Amino acid sequence: PYKTSTITTQHKILTDFINDITAETTTAYTKYTTDIQQTTRQHLNKFEMELNTQVQIKWKQLENDIQAKHTAYEKLTNDSVNEENRQKATTTHHTNHNPKP
User: Fold this and answer.
1) Which of 18, 85, 86, 97 has the smallest CB count inside 10 Å?
2) Which DSSP string corresponds to the chain?
3) Interior CA angle at 54 toward 49 and 69, to 5°?
4) How confident is the model at residue 63, as a pLDDT?
5) d(CA 63, CA 55)
6) R_g (Cα) of the chain, nearest Å
7) How far apart are CA 97 and CA 83, in angstroms?
8) How far apart are CA 90 and CA 101, in angstroms?
9) How many angstroms separate the CA atoms of 99 and 92, rounded?
């Protein structure tokens, strides 16, 4: 039979071992989760920057497209007004030179 002191000593050794493993595991887990959080944050920041860049590029393309369409519409409107005025002037000119009997 084991002596009480031997059992107590073995129990203390086992308890210390479990405490050491628990402390090491907790430290390793904390470091692991911290590393994961930092890595995730870095990836998210990089992704957000890339996304912002893409959005800005697309937004600029849309602005340019809208501006080009607006300019084309203004030109079309001006051309139409100019043509209408030209036709009025021609009609007035003909009417003045060719009075109806």
Assistant:
1) 97
2) ---HHHHHHHHHHHHHHHHHHHHHHHHHHHHHHHHHHHHHHHHHHHHHHHHHHHHHHHHHHHHHHHHHHHHHHHHHHHHHHHHHHHHHHHHHHHHHHS---
3) 150
4) 97
5) 12
6) 43
7) 21
8) 20
9) 11
- Per-10-residue mean pLDDT, the chain, length 101: 78 95 96 97 97 97 96 92 86 65 58
pTM for this entry: 0.50
Contacts of 10 (CB under 8 A, 6+ apart): 2
CA dihedral 13, 15, 19, 25 (to 10 degrees): 90
Please report the pLDDT score of residue 99 as a whole number: 59
